[in-house]
């Protein structure tokens, strides 16, 4: 009998049910889309922030004070310490290995450069990886280098290939000395030049907007040979995906209890990643590049809060509209309620019947709205990040639960009033 | 005009007939209007606020001497360039600092009695600086590792980078003596700062001290600027600066300008998309609720037609009712929404969002349109045959 009444109510007034259901589905679609996008956006944006480059800098622990102005180190080759290149594969063995997006070692030395048919001039020579396959201790390889870690570097021509006599010249240095792609230049290190070394071919002109614009860039191995520092580097830039630092993340790990330390090292704070890098690179000092890390943290936190608020607002709007629509559908059924009560139904039975109808509607409408919302979220995600947000059961649970709660709450007030109706005046049409 | 009087009387009665129903409609419309106004206002404000937020990355423009053919290691330019900078870009003030670098022989002493045994000695880079606008930390973000408020008369104060501290074991409160070939100066260490860059191996002193040490009066090595604005506004400012200062080299720090532009576009894109999505669906949702409410008016329509109301007049009556409801809901809801967005702005950015006057009429207009559109299916009621309604059919 109960089921028949519910089925009857749906078949008798399909239009009303359809409209209430549509309001519900649309409201829940907004909620789903907003919720999926904001759940996903943090990770996507964190990746986006890596276009700002490295946020960690690794230098030798026992080092002489770098005499660095504007990013150019004026120390002679034999001053200061170096780090072994062979350890670099270990970076991808740390607990946060999947958060390490890219890294690039640098060996910077002051050099004399002789362009073909030009004059000797002094500039800095940077040895690094353009695109390098690092072999990992577990047998695999990882492709990284400045192309990945410094995406704002623009190259006119192509990068040098490793193990060949090729180099790339910074745009300012090239302009000053009239160097073009395809030219040759000789590079020499040290006090004075006894014989002109074999020339390197210029394969590209680099524009970085930084001190590299005034340098000559060669592959790390070439620079190591020139500087007679085999398999060594001086600086390592690491670009890692991090979680914005909160008060807990800023604490000193040495002052933590073991449980706190575990929680700290299990959150990808920039400082805890630095800490775990330090453990695999003996003799290295890992510093956080504050400029990049702090700005990133601040903006990510703000954007995340903003999106959560927008999501919350859309949930609220959806809830109010859905609630209003289900309230309206109960109000208009005064006569029916009166009739049921006149036939001997108690207030409880009537309320239960109407609530069951609303819940059924909520389930169907919520489910449809969820499907629609997921489609919308995919569209938005695809459009903005080129990747659709991942499916999340959490969203489904929240949406269906929200639909049920909102429709029930929306009908609760009119239902309570309906339970107080006297059947006689309603049936008389008063 | 008795006709018009009658019209309004009917509307009044229609509205007053069922308080619960009136409340429900106003709630739906008001909620829609509030969300519309709040999100529109926040959207306009947030993209603007974001560009300010980006300045936590610090400087994004560098002004330096032209890289000339026979460039010496540290070319300098006149300090007056700093004071000649246009101080604002699109009404937002620009921070800038001038730096002068010099290599000095530094010695650390435990206290002011410099005659005592030195703790450490070695070559260090000294950076003299002077800023306009916000503090140095806004141009080169750093973290203070250790600090001491030292007020010592007749002595300069300097701040040291993390690496300098590590090498020299100098601590705040100790004295640095800086010496060049032709001059010397001393300062009390105030703060120990961590930058994560080449600044970590520098000692920060006042511009006057650095100029005194190098003998380069009124000269600076370079200028760092933090220019707020959208990517296009920053480009425009750089172009303006280039025109104004033809003798020096003005260049954006591409690492930040390009990264910021990319992130700015993404964030404003996602914000606009979410807001548009929410607005469209909120509109549809409110419309569905309105339609539901409007459909139950069939008895009224039947009665009006039975006593001789022309279809168009009846329809006009109901549309007028819907418009009136939309207006009320919109006016109330949008006001609430703007207050809400100011509060939200405060929650997110710490500064209340500025209410934009244009948002208010737009939100009210949108609500009225949605209300009328929601009542529009009543048009179909024009085909209702009064007799059928009264018999309780259909």
Please explain how this structure is put together.
The complex is a heterodimer of chains A (430) and B (394). Chain A has 430 residues and is α+β, with helices and mostly antiparallel strands. Chain A folds into two domains: 2-46 and 299-428, no CATH class; 55-288, no CATH class. Chain A is 48% helix and 19% strand. Chain A is built from twelve helices and 16 strands. The mean pLDDT of chain A is 83. The relative contact order of chain B is 0.18. Chain B has helices at 2-17, 19-53, 80-83, 136-139, 162-168, 207-214, 231-244, 254-295, 298-306, 311-349, 359-375, 386-390; strands at 61-65, 77-78, 88-89, 92-93, 95-109, 120-132, 143-147, 156-161, 175-179, 184-194, 202-206, 219-220, 222-226, 248-252. The model of chain B has no long low-confidence stretch (mean pLDDT 81). In chain B, strands 5-6-11-8-10-9 form a six-stranded mixed beta barrel. Chain B has a two-stranded antiparallel ribbon with strand order 2-12. With 394 residues, chain B is of the alpha+beta class. Chain B has twelve helices and 14 strands. In chain B, strand 9 and strand 10 (184-194) form a beta hairpin. The interface between A and B is large, with 86 and 88 residues.
Summarize, please:
The complex is a heterodimer of chains A (about 425) and B (about 400). Chain A has helices spanning about 1-10, 15-50, 145-150, 170-175, 220-225, 260-265, 270-280, 290-330, 335-340, 345-385, 395-420, 425-430, and strands at about 55-60, 70, 70-75, 85, 100-115, 120-130, 130-135, 140-145, 155, 165-170, 185-190, 200-205, 215-220, 230-235, 235-240, 285-290.
């Amino acid at each position: 009998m109960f089921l028949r009444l519910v089925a009857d109510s749906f078949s008798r007034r399909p239009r009303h049910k359809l409209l209430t259901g549509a309001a519900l589905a649309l409201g829940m679609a907004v909620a789903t889309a907003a919720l999926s996008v904001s759940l996903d956006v943090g990770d996507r944006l964190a990746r986006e922030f890596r276009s700002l480059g490295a946020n960690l800098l690794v230098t030798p622990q026992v080092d002489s004070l770098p005499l660095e102005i504007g990013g150019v180190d004026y120390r002679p080759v034999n001053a200061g310490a170096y780090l072994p290149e062979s350890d670099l594969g270990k970076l991808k063995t740390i607990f946060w290995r999947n958060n390490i997006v890219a890294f690039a070692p640098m060996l910077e030395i002051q050099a004399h450069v002789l362009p073909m048919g030009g004059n000797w001039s002094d500039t800095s020579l940077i040895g690094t990886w353009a695109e390098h396959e690092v072999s990992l201790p577990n047998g695999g390889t990882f492709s990284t280098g400045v192309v990945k870690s410094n995406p704002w570097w623009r190259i006119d021509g192509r990068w040098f290939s490793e193990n060949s006599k090729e180099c790339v010249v910074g745009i300012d240095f090239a302009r000053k000395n009239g160097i073009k792609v395809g030219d040759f230049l000789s590079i020499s290190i040290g006090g004075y030049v006894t014989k002109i070394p074999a020339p390197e071919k210029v394969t590209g002109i680099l524009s970085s907007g930084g001190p590299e614009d005034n340098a000559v860039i060669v592959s790390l191995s070439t620079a190591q040979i020139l500087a007679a520092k085999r398999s060594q580097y001086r600086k390592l830039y690491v670009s890692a995906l991090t979680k914005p630092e909160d008060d807990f993340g800023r604490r000193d790990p040495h002052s933590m209890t073991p449980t706190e330390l575990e929680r700290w090292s299990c959150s990808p704070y920039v400082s805890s990643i630095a800490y775990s890098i330090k453990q695999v690179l003996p003799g290295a000092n890992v510093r956080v590049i504050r400029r990049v890390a702090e700005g990133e943290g601040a903006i990510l936190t703000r954007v995340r809060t903003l999106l959560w608020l927008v999501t919350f607002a859309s949930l609220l709007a959806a809830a109010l509209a859905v609630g209003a629509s289900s309230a309206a559908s109960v109000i208009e059924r005064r006569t029916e309620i009166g009739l049921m009560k006149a036939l001997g139904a108690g207030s409880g039975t009537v309320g239960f019947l109407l609530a069951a109808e609303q819940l059924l509607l909520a389930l169907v409408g919520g489910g449809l709205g969820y499907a629609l919302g997921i489609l919308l979220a995919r569209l938005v995600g695809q459009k903005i990040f080129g990747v659709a947000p991942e499916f999340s059961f959490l969203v489904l649970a929240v949406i269906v639960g929200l639909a049920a709660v909102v429709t029930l709450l929306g009908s609760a007030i009119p239902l309570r009033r309906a339970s107080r109706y006297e059947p006689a005046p309603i049936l008389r049409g008063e | 005009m008795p006709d018009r009087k009658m019209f309004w009387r009917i509307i009044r009665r229609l509205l007053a007939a069922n308080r619960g129903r009136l409340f429900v409609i106003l709630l739906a419309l008001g909620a829609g209007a509030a969300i519309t106004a709040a999100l529109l206002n926040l959207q306009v404000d947030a993209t603007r606020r974001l560009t300010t937020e980006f300045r936590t990355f610090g400087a994004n423009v560098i002004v330096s001497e032209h890289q000339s053919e026979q460039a010496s290691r540290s070319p300098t330019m006149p300090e007056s360039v700093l004071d000649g900078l246009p101080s604002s870009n699109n009404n937002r003030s620009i921070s800038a600092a001038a730096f002068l670098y010099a290599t000095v022989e530094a010695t650390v002493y435990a206290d002011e009695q410099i005659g005592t045994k030195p703790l450490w000695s070695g070559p260090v880079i000294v950076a003299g600086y002077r800023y306009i606008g916000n503090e140095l930390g806004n141009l080169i973000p750093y973290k203070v590792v250790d600090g001491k408020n030292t007020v010592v008369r007749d002595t300069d104060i300097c701040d040291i980078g993390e690496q300098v501290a590590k090498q020299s074991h100098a601590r705040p409160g100790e004295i640095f003596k800086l010496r060049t070939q032709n001059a010397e100066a001393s300062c009390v260490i105030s703060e120990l700062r961590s930058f994560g860059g080449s600044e970590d191996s520098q000692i920060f002193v006042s511009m006057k001290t650095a100029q005194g040490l190098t003998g380069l009066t009124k000269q600076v090595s370079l200028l760092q600027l933090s220019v707020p604005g959208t990517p296009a506004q920053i480009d425009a400012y750089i172009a303006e600066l280039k025109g104004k200062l033809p003798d020096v080299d003005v260049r954006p720090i591409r690492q930040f300008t390009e990264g910021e532009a990319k992130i700015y576009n993404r964030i404003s894109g996602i914000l606009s998309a979410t807001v548009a999505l929410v607005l469209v669906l909120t509109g549809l949702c409110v419309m569905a609720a309105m339609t539901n409410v409007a459909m139950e008016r069939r008895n009224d329509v039947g009665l009006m037609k039975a006593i001789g109301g022309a279809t168009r007049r009846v329809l006009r009556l109901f549309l007028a009712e819907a418009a009136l409801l939309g207006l009320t809901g919109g006016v109330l809801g949008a006001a609430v929404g703007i207050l809400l967005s100011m509060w939200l702005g405060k929650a997110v950015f710490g500064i209340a969002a500025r209410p934009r006057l244009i948002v208010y009429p737009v939100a009210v207009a949108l609500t009225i349109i949605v209300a009328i559109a929601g009542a529009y299916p009543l048009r179909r009621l024009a085909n209702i045959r009064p007799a059928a309604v009264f018999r309780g059919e259909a």
